[in-house]
Amino acid sequence: MLATLITLLSEPITGTAQRFLAWDDHMPAPPAVATGGAPNQYLHTEDGKTLPLRFDSIHGVKGETHAATLLVETYIHPTHDLASLVPVLAGQKHGSELSANEMSHCLRAFVALTRASDLICVALFDEHVSSKEADGMVAAGWIVERLR
After folding, report:
1. Residue 52's beta-bridge partner residues?
2. Per-residue model confidence as pLDDT tens digits over 59-73
3. How much is the pLDDT for 64?
C-alpha cells in the first residue's frame, strides 16, 4: 500500500484531486469521487480487500479516532507549518520556546496526531529535517524514512 501511496503522490495532480487540494475551509466540500465513495475518500483495493482512505483537514477530523493518521506538511501563513516543529519532535527544543505562530502549528499537529489509535506518520520535506534532527527523532522513538 505504501508503494501505491508514493505512486499517487508522485503523479501529476489533476481532476478531482486537484479540486480537493485547492479546497479550503471557506469553500464547500468537493463532490464524491467517481468510485462512489464519500467526499475526499479514496478506496484502496488489494487482494480483494478495500480500505477507505479519507483526506481531510485537521479541523475536519477533530474529535474523531482513526486507526492511522498521515499528517502532511503544508505551506501556510508564509511558512511550512511543520518545519518549525522538527526540533520539538527531535527533542532539541521545548514547546515553551515556540513563537505564537509555531505554537499554533504545534497545537494543530497535536490535534491531528492524537486522532490515531495505532499509527501516526508525519510527512515533511526532506530539506526541513537535518541529519542531526533525524537522529534526535529516532532517539525520541520516531522511525525516520527518507523517500526520494
Report:
1. 43
2. 888 788 888 888 888
3. 85
